[in-house]
Amino acid sequence: MPCQLTQEQIDHAIAFHGHWCPGLASGIRAAEWALAEMGPRSEDEELVAVVETDYCGIDAVQCLTGCTFGKGNLIYRDYGKLAFSFYRRSDGKAARLVLKGMGNTAEQEEMTALHRKKATGLTPGEADRLQALREHVAAQTMDAALGDIFDIQALNDPPPQKARILESRVCDGCGERVMETRTRLRGNKCYCLPCFEKQADVA
Question: What pairing do the DSSP bridges indicate for beta strands 47-51 and 83-88?
Fold first, then answer.
């Protein structure tokens, strides 16, 4: 079944991200699944999203589901996987959505090759072809059934713990305030992570 979100929701996600692309389309569809299966947009921490890479689709998840870094209910794990896990705190319902490849293999390979060539410059024809491929894959993503876009796996894991308000300390290196859990001790001094690394480089 094609995307069931309203055009207003889709436009809101595009405006939030800044442009339309296949990555954003996949994030919109992940957010659609979460809203349909987990309930309405999260105003606090009722819904939690765990994302495994920092690509375009994450913006759609933040914008549409209300899972954000600032509220502590969007958690980033740097695994390099196109996967989203959603948790509902009220009853422990949880699932992980893993993105399948969209478009045929030849299209994917051509699009990847053109993306790589962008660094050195595309001809006008190549730029037009890349844009056409991106539009095609994004349209496919929006028109496909959710089960064709994602492998959807039920999870038995408990939701991540709620965001905590932590004490701050002043770094003895730069004088800036830093969360206590992100400080490191060297001798009798307390350092933020960048200053601690600089101390290690000097030692």
Answer: antiparallel
For residues 36 and 95, the answer to whether their CB atoms sit within 8 Å is no
Q: Which fold has domain 7-154?
A: 60s Ribosomal Protein L30; Chain: A; (3.30.1330)
100-139 per-position pLDDT tens digit: 976 677 888 899 899 899 889 999 998 999 999 999 999 9
* Domain chopping of the chain, boundaries: 7-154, 168-202
Q: Which of 32, 69, 70 is nearest to 51 (CA)?
A: 69
* Sequence-distant contacts of 162-170: CB under 8 A, at least 24 apart: 162/45, 162/72, 163/45, 163/71, 163/72, 163/73, 164/72
Residues in the chain, pLDDT under 50: none
Task: Please give the model's pTM, rounded to 2 decimal places.
Answer: 0.84
DSSP code of residue 163: P
Calculate the CA 6 to chain-centre distance: 21
Query: What local confidence, expressed as pLDDT, does residue 133 receive?
Result: 93
At 161, give phi and psi (nearest 5°): -65, 155
Q: How far is CA 195 from the centre of its chain?
A: 29
Question: Which residue spans within the chain are E strands per DSSP?
Answer: 47-51, 74-76, 83-88, 94-99, 150-154, 168-170, 177-179, 184-186, 189-191
